[in-house]
Specification:
Layout (H helix, E strand, L loop, with lengths): L17 H7 L1 H12 E2 L2 E2 L8 H6 L2 E6 L1 H18 L2 E6 H4 L10 E7 L5 H12 L4 E5 L5 H5 L2 E4 L12 H20 L5 H36 L4 E6 L3 H16 L2 E6 L17 E5 L6 H19 L4 E6 L4 H5 L2 E5 L7 H20 L17
Parallel strand pairs: 3-4, 3-5, 5-6, 6-7, 8-9, 8-10, 10-11, 11-12
Antiparallel strand pairs: 1-2
Helix pairs in contact: 2-8, 2-9, 4-8, 4-10, 8-9, 8-13, 9-13, 10-13
Amino acid sequence: MTPTKQNENSTDQKFAHVMRREIYEQPVAIARTVEKHLNNDVIFPGALQPIESALLRFEKLIIAASGSSRHAGLAGEIMIEDLSGVAVDVEYASEYSYRSTHAAVDPIVMVITQSGETADTTAAQREALTRGVKTIAISNMPDTTIVREAGAALITGAGPELSVPATKSFTTQLTILYLMALFLARKRGRMTSEVTRSYLQRLEQLPAAVEKNLAAWDASGEEFASVHFKAEKFLYLGRGVHYAIAREGALKLKEISYAHAEGYPAGELKHGPNALVDEKLPVVVLATRDQHDPDSLLRYRRTLDVMKEVRSRRGPLVTVASEGDTEVAAIADQVFYVPAAPELLLPIVEVIPLQLFAYHVAVKKGYDVDHPRNLVKAVVTE
């Protein structure tokens, strides 16, 4: 199944808001990102050649980013470390410039920005260059400051993103970070060509799976939002790579519905946030699993325990689960189901129902989701 290209230049009758249209453009954007950076199983053909010598000797990857791009970096940290063995640190771009040293390591600094003009992220890259460090920029837009100044640049296939909340830029950033994990795994001899090919095949199948499920997620998002849109605070929980998606889901809701939402590692619930749980606090839980990954299944079992804890305190549960899962449905009030995928690809699919949930909560509150108050698309001043 090939993703159907949507009208990218104007909001048509199907989409009352640009944000919703851009959510629906994600299958095409993800597929285009893969096509841009994969040629006959060669990942990033030529794109990283300008920093090839640094790729052979670097000891650590430092990711500097802000907002949704930083959440992509948090997911990328686990993707890259788990698949390639490369150590990764994720910094707030606004804080990186004030760090005194790189702690005696020889790093590469990767900066991630939707617009390519984010002031904090540009400043972080310039600080890295001043320290003599090679940089890689991930951006939606090719002809931008951060791309021109980077040692090497990887452009997503999202194209221009007009709505202030990041949607397709986020999932395409995740796609590039997943490809980076595979690239480094091959370069460091951690993965055979056959295994790499199997990972790439699953990635190539993802856009069609997303498109197949979009309408169902949209309908569920509207239904679940009608139950919870009056809530004033939300808690989002996830384990491992899913913690980054809990953070991103909370940010989406916070940005456009003005409800207070926080993302936490699921295991941290008992270390403070549990005091907030009552019948008025919807708890949104990432409870997906990869049936072929023992570590994923262990995290899943622990997440079920957390959900039972929330249920014992009468907390409403909204969850994202893998299709066919009956255990989550027996505990949760509402469930988004996502297609089966490898553990480290699940973030790309599971964030989309959370985007739609946030969208419908904000719409039911009567807010302008494309232009939330006090926010701009590109933060060009520090």
